[in-house]
Structures are given as structure tokens and as C-alpha cells.
Amino acid sequence: MRMPDPGRKARLPGEERQGFIGRAATAQGEACVRCVRAAISAVAMIVIVTAAAPAAAAKGARRAQPGATVQPPAVLVYRVQAGDTLWGLARRHLTTAERLAAMNGIALEATLQIGQRLKVPAVPTAARPARLAALPSRGQRWATALPALATRHVGVRYRWGGISPSGFDCSGFLYYVFGRNGVALPRTTFSMFKAGVPVPRDQIQTGDIVFFQTLRPGPSHAGVYLGDGRFVHSSSGAGGVAITPMGHRYYGPRYLGARRF
Question: pLDDT tens for residues 36-64?
């Protein structure tokens, strides 16, 4: 016969049952805690997805919005035409000759070839110059008097620094002729080119100043446009004041632009 252990507490009736119930309750509580945690994680995930959805939808809408304005390319390819120069193209595309040369990997003094392809900045429509009036604002008298005075000095000798009928250099001739007609021009062709109102080639009128890139980069030579594709200028090569066709084999390819005063 087995004797009871005096150090072991005797289990009363019902204690074993209560212990089982307690363990079951503890297990059930832990399971509930796990369920609550899972539920909280699920709710958090829903909140994150819900918050991100409108932003993603808006982004997608911006990408695919019908009728949205498509931005034009920042750089265009231009095919060189007769009379184009780096300086003239720079003016037309609102940039500098130095930048154009760098964009195309060519020297600033490079002679452009007809048909050559050049990268040029795209000019926004709003920035393009408006068409000019048919004649300078000084009227028909100006368009007659200025060429008449200029052609009256054909044959006057070329003299470096000259600004009088005893001898003219290129800019001195313009300075004198315009001054006699009430217009104070800057003294150099470079300053004249900057000060005048740009005129597109298809809108040049009698009395406009036409510029050429000759001895150095930029507007280094100029004359008064007479109409019919001719201009009058004081030329060192011609030895004095002369009338020359715009399409002259030397000046034609070096045409830079025109200005109106």
C-alpha cells in the first residue's frame, strides 16, 4: 500500500477541474490578444493604402490628362540658309553666338555652310519679335531723304576714323548720314547693332542699316539699305563709298542682320 507524501499538498475535490479551466482561459486570452494585434495591423495597412491611393491617382491623371499641353523641345535642329551667320542665328534665337558655337562644337569664327545642320534653342512663341511697320515711323520723307544723302557721297574715299565728306570709315559714314537726318547713332557698328530695332530679313526697308561679319566676329561692317537688294557703304576694299548688291559673293554669305532707327 502506497503511503501519502507528507510534503505534498493534498488536492481537494474540484481543484483539478479548476486548474484545467484556468489554463484554457489563459490560452483563450492569448489567442484574443493575437487577434486584436492582427486586426490593428490590418486597419493600419488599409489607412496607408487609402491615403496613398489619391496621390497615385492624381499622378496618373496628370500623366494621362487629355488635352494637356505638351512642352516643346528645348533644342531644335536648324538647316543653314544663304546669308546665315552664327551671330544672326543667335539674335534670332535669343541667345549668344558663343553659346551656339559651344552647342555645336564649332569655332566662333567658323564660316557656316549652306545646308549645315545646327542645334539652336527653341524660342517660345510669346518671345518672337512682332512684325514691324512697313516703313520707319519718320515716314516716306525719311525713306527718300536718307538714301539720297547717302548715295550723294558715292566715290568719297575711305579713311580710317573718318566721319566727314573728306573721308569716311564704315561706321563714320553711317554716323554722318544719319546725323544729317536728325538721328544720333552710336559711333561703332557693334553699338549700332545693339541699339537698333531688329528687322527680319524679309521685312528690310529702305533706310534700314544692314550688318555683315567681315574682318572679325560680330557686326564689323554695315551700310544703308537702298531697296532692290542693294546697299551703300564705305568700304576699305572698294576704296570708298560704293553701292553693292546684297548678294555679292563676299558680303552675301556674311550678312548678319538689319536694324531700324
Answer: 465 555 444 444 444 444 454 445 445 54
| 153, 200 contact by CB (below 8 A) | no
35 is catalytic: no
Within-domain flag for 180:
yes
**Is 153 in the active site?**
no
Which one is catalytic: 32, 35, 221, 248? 221
Reported pTM: 0.52
Q: Strand, coil or helix: what is 11?
A: coil
C-alpha grid cell for residue 173?
559714314
Distances (CA, A) of 228 to 13, 105, 186, 195, 246: 130, 37, 27, 25, 9
115 and 181 inside one domain: no
Whether 221 is catalytic: yes
The answer to whether residues 178 and 242 belong to one domain is yes
pLDDT digits (tens, 9 = 90+) for 181-229: 888 899 999 999 998 889 998 889 899 999 999 988 899 999 999 988 9
Given the residues 32, 35, 93, 170, the one annotated as active site: 170
Interatomic CA distance for residues 97 and 103, integer angstroms = 10
